[in-house]
Task: structure prediction
Amino acid sequence: MFDLDGVIRHWNDDELDVHGALHGLPPRAILDVGFSEELGHAAVTGLLTYREWMDRVRAEVIGTWGQTATPALDRWEANVSEVDRQMVELLRVVRAQVPVALLSNGTTRLRRDLPCSASPTSST
Result:
């Protein structure tokens, strides 16, 4: 079993922080709001859809730091992470020998993030 985030895909949080700073946000501001106890839990357990979560994050960030945060929020929402190609190759090697499962506590956007999710036996 492998976790998706932090193992197979990696987020560029530092780059997003630099962009956020250009729009008046302190480091990790959007992440702190998005993954607060209330919103983070609701997003990763399906209590909020991805769209509902993003709308709540936007409202809270803009409510705290103002409309100038909008470009940083747009960039954060458009972020799709980077796939660790070495881990994907390792998974292929392992999967040739034993069944492999991918676990994630991602949002409801996960199906969009994983183009192969429509086919559980897909080789991608």
Observations:
- The CA atoms of residues 62 and 69 lie 6 Å apart.
- The chain has one domain: 2-118.
- The two ends are 16 Å apart (CA to CA).
- The first helix runs from residue 13 to 22.
